[in-house]
Specification:
alpha/beta; Rossmann fold; 2 domains
Length: 295
């Protein structure tokens, strides 16, 4: 399928799709609402297919790239859902190195998130990407089904799973003991929550378009935090000024960027919401942040 950009679609349609992706409306409701955008012989169903992820576009680093060593591991999460499957990627040749937890969106451990982990490994980090859907059978290979499974999860237990994964990564003998966390959408929210829970045990945090904690919770954050938002993300971005103020009050080293013209999900290169310029700049800032605080 030809790759489309956000600018190829009306903003109202993109916002409608965002509501579907986040479980606010059903697929049927999306299709009904998309009817008014279905012009020129393009059906609502065709618009849905155009907006869905195409994971062939996500591969920047092949799974068998000779620069990395990748495997699936099991992490024990006794306070969460038991045992969690996770994707561990390291440079092929490395001694002790910093670790980075990679936290997926509300769909599970898909090909895009696996590739993000590999992108971190080729620049010298050990990346661990847990599959939050492990307890319900794991990521099913389809985002729509993944979203349905995600809706069944106990969010408190799921947070414990990611916390267990962070502790597991930090304790590895081939880790320096310095770990960071990066997450996208739901994963960005989890990064903020882990920063609250872990205090100084988390050395750096980079939430992409993640829901912000309360001011009282933010006061517990110690990790230097880099927040990334899209201008058109009307659900999440408006929460940044209050979070910024809370981090400032707590004397947390932090930066925040709102990328002009970018939508929620702008870093995910498998959908038309991807914004190449914003994604590349945000990723460069992400790597600079981790290099500064984890090395």
């Amino acid at each position: 399928m030809e790759r489309k950009k956000a600018s190829d679609f009306p903003q109202g349609l993109l916002q409608l799709f965002d509501r579907y992706v986040h479980g606010e409306i059903s697929r049927r409701a999306f299709l009904d609402g998309a009817q008014k955008f279905a012009v020129g012989g393009v059906t609502a169903a065709a618009l849905f297919e155009m907006l869905k992820p195409n994971y062939a576009w996500a591969i920047e680093v092949e799974p068998d790239d000779s620069r990395i060593k990748a495997e699936f591991v099991t992490v024990s999460s006794p306070q969460g859902n038991g045992n969690i499957k996770a994707y561990l990627v390291r440079p092929a040749q490395a001694g002790k190195i910093p670790g980075i937890l990679v936290i997926h969106e509300n769909r599970g451990l898909n090909a895009y998130i696996e590739d993000v982990a590999r992108r971190l490994a080729v620049v010298g980090f050990m990346a661990l990407a847990p599959d939050g859907l492990t307890s319900v059978g794991g990521y099913p290979g389809d985002d729509e089904k993944g979203g349905q499974l995600f809706a069944k999860l106990d969010r408190d237990k799921l947070l414990e799973d990611f916390l267990a994964a962070a502790i597991w990564l930090k304790a590895r003998p081939d880790c320096t003991g310095k770990i960071g966390a990066v997450g996208f959408c739901y994963g960005g929210t989890v990064v903020n929550q882990l920063a609250v829970r872990m205090g100084a045990d988390l050395a750096a945090a980079v939430p992409f378009y993640g829901g912000q904690p309360s001011a009282a919770a933010a006061a517990r954050i110690k990790a230097p935090l880099l927040a990334q938002y899209g201008e058109f993300d009307t659900r999440i971005t408006p929460g940044w000024p209050a979070f910024d103020a809370a981090l400032t009050a707590a004397q947390v080293p932090h930066e925040g960027y709102v990328y002009v013209g970018a939508n929620h999900g702008f870093h995910n290169d498998t959908t038309p919401r991807y914004d190449e310029a914003a994604a590349k700049l945000a990723w460069r800032r992400t790597l600079d942040w981790f290099n500064k605080f984890l090395r």
